[in-house]
Design brief:
The protein is an all-alpha fold. It is built from eight helices and no strands. The protein has two domains: 77 residues, lambda repressor-like DNA-binding domains (434 Repressor (Amino-terminal Domain), Orthogonal Bundle), CATH 1.10.260; 64 residues. The radius of gyration is 22 Å and the shape is elongated.
């Protein structure tokens, strides 16, 4: 069961914001917010991320936790935990994830060639070496980024 509707209302009220004021703050309209809070509509992924970032709340918690029961604890301890990703951190993660996707795609192609029992050409081997080097570089970059985000 999703608790998004009630959690949105809880978080908005905890900031003493009207639906209209909150909607303006996150670039939406009051009707959107009212529909979300009544459970008549669900926000797009992009809007959901915008709402989570506004409150500095983990997206998973906004959807899965019942803040009517745990909300005060969540809000009181929010200052003791790292808040949601900044826009720059999110973009950096997105770029790195796309880079990894491209590399993994190349490695999957190599795996299919191996499974088919085909011989590798010199070009295939060179491509595999380059993909391996890129994978190592991307992995180190992601490791560094993740360490920065969790410390």
């Amino acid at each position: 069961m999703s608790f998004f509707s009630s959690n949105l209302r809880f978080l908005r009220n905890s900031k003493h914001l009207s639906q209209d004021a909150f909607a303006r703050a996150v670039g939406m309209n009051r009707g959107n917010i009212a529909s979300y809070e009544k459970g008549l509509a669900e926000p797009s992924s992009a809007r959901l991320l915008t709402i989570a970032r506004f409150f500095g709340a983990p997206l998973e918690a906004i959807i899965e936790d019942d803040f009517r029961e745990t909300g005060l604890y969540f809000l009181e301890n929010q200052a003791n935990t790292r808040s949601a990703l900044t826009a720059a951190e999110y973009e950096e993660l997105k770029v790195e994830a796309l880079r990894l996707d491209r590399i993994i795609s190349g490695l999957r192609e190599f795996q299919l060639i191996r499974e088919a029992g085909e011989e590798l050409s010199a070009r295939d081997i060179q491509s595999l070496v380059v993909d391996h080097e890129r994978l190592l570089d991307a992995s180190l970059s992601m490791q560094s980024l993740i360490r920065r985000l969790i410390t």
